[in-house]
């Protein structure tokens, strides 16, 4: 970067020139904060991340509303629907979001390189992959009762959860397609329409779910049926938008058999992307399971589950910035601007830390209020207060690694990130959790300290890797079915 300045200091504008020849004027006296945070880049990223936060929240509320309505039918229905929703998160959400991560790399870099016509082909190929895995997961869901019983759960709860999952199978197919279309739009920085197209089915879902659960006679099974219907409506709204909006004339040119030629190639990126997401999701679920093996399991399980849910809510904010980082990095790499991609990453990290600090300050001063949303037990309130400092640390680490994971997806390094997640969570974090929880007096605190160790190692590894790696556009070949993603 080069800059020209005035020798008389009378207010001549500064001229900043980037490697690609783009020039930007900075007025004297107004650019000092750019040394701390590039405000233009920050505004651009916030304009991407805030709509994505709202969009993901609205889609999340579709499944949550169904669980809430089912829970009002009785304690067994509450336990069964809650367990089913957790099972959906572990086997459905994690896998489908992960598989769609391949599009963050390919569509993002393709859009940056102005290879517009290939984006629709990538989308169709990824949808084919999602449909294949939806069939596999559906078969697993038919055996939900047997699997949950093996995990030491009550037969009645397992049977209720299995019933919920069977009626939710159609929703899984819609969810997989929905995630692919979201990535297709996100990588083109089309995010404002997503808020509208997600809030409408969410609001409609409240009425659909209430009618099916309370009025139609379906009762408990009406909850998953309503969620499936609303997810299909959500997916169809996005699909119709893509097929009919003029702005996608170049990136969507209709259905093509040509997309089958890219399935195996994209699979090589989609599988490590899914592994990368799943390993992190599963680590938190294992932590909740381990809490159930400790003394006073009803208290320890509740505490760890509350902390995991709090962390997930905080991560929903970070995920918006992670999506913005992925989009900005992939677009800039596709356009051949690695330095600007790195600059975008640095801005996103600062924004994520800022939002993370705001969240943990609110949690630190308001933890007594927050815990009341989950429990009225004085014991749980007291123990949660002692666990809050550890929760604050993990949230801050998650804020950093969430952005770095977005950068990884934007660059096409998912296979290496999957290895890092496997090592840091399952070879470092969870063993430390077991050691501290079962061999010392720390118990549930030991579980969370182990998680912090895993997050610290994961964040440090991703940070070092992104700093040392050579940032280049992912080269993908249809004919040779070969990728050339990285040089270090």
UniProtKB/TrEMBL annotation:
Highest classification ranks of the organism: Eukaryota, Viridiplantae, Streptophyta, Embryophyta, Tracheophyta
Topological type in the membrane: Multi-pass membrane protein
GO molecular function, one term: xenobiotic transmembrane transporter activity
Family affiliation: Belongs to the multi antimicrobial extrusion (MATE) (TC 2.A.66.1) family.
Top-level lineage group: Eukaryota
Localization, UniProt: Membrane
InterPro entries, sorted: MATE_euk (IPR045069), MATE_fam (IPR002528)
Name of this chain's protein: Protein DETOXIFICATION
């Amino acid at each position: 970067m080069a800059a020209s300045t005035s020798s008389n200091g009378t207010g001549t504008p500064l001229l900043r020139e980037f490697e690609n020849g783009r020039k930007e004027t900075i007025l004297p006296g107004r650019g000092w904060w750019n040394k701390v945070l590039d405000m233009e880049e920050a505004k651009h990223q916030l304009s991407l991340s805030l709509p994505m936060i709202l969009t993901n929240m609205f889609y999340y509320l579709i499944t949550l509303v169904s669980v809430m309505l089912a829970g009002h039918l009785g304690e067994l229905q509450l336990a069964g629907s809650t367990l089913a929703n957790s099972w959906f998160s572990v086997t459905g959400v994690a896998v489908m979001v992960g598989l769609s991560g391949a599009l963050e790399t390919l569509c993002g870099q393709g859009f940056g390189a102005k290879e517009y016509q290939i984006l629709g082909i990538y989308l169709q190929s990824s949808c084919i992959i999602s449909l294949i895995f939806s069939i596999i997961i559906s078969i697993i869901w038919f055996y939900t009762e047997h699997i949950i019983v093996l995990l030491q759960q009550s037969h009645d709860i397992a049977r209720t959860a299995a019933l919920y999952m069977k009626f939710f199978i159609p929703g899984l197919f819609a969810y997989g397609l929905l995630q692919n279309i979201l990535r297709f739009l996100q990588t083109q920085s089309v995010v404002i329409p997503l808020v509208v197209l997600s809030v409408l089915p969410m609001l409609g879902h409240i009425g659909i779910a209430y009618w099916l659960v309370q009025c139609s006679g379906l009762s408990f099974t009406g909850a998953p049926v309503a969620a499936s219907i609303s997810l299909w409506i959500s997916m169809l709204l996005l699909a119709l938008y893509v097929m009919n909006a003029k702005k996608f004339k170049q990136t969507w040119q209709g259905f093509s058999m040509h997309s089958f030629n890219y399935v195996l190639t994209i699979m090589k990126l989609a599988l490590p992307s899914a592994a990368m997401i799943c390993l992190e999701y599963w680590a938190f679920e294992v932590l909740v399971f381990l809490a159930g093996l400790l003394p006073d399991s009803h208290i320890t399980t509740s505490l760890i589950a509350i902390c995991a849910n709090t962390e997930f809510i905080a991560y929903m904010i970070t995920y918006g910035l992670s999506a913005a980082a992925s989009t900005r990095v992939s677009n800039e790499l596709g356009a051949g601007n690695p330095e600007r991609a790195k600059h975008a990453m640095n801005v996103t990290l600062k924004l994520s830390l800022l939002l993370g600090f705001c969240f943990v300050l609110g949690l630190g001063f308001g933890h007594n209020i927050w815990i009341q949303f989950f429990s009225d037990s004085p014991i749980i309130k007291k123990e949660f207060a002692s666990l809050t400092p550890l929760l604050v640390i993990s949230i801050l680490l998650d804020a950093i690694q969430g952005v770095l994971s977005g950068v990884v997806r934007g660059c096409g390094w998912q296979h290496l990130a999957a290895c890092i997640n496997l090592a840091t969570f399952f070879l470092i974090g969870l063993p430390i959790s077991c050691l501290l929880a079962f061999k010392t007096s720390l118990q549930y605190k030991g579980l969370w300290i182990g998680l912090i160790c895993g997050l610290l190692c994961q964040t440090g590894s991703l940070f070092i890797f992104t700093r040392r790696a050579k940032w280049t556009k992912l080269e993908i070949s249809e004919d040779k079915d070969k990728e050339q993603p990285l040089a270090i």
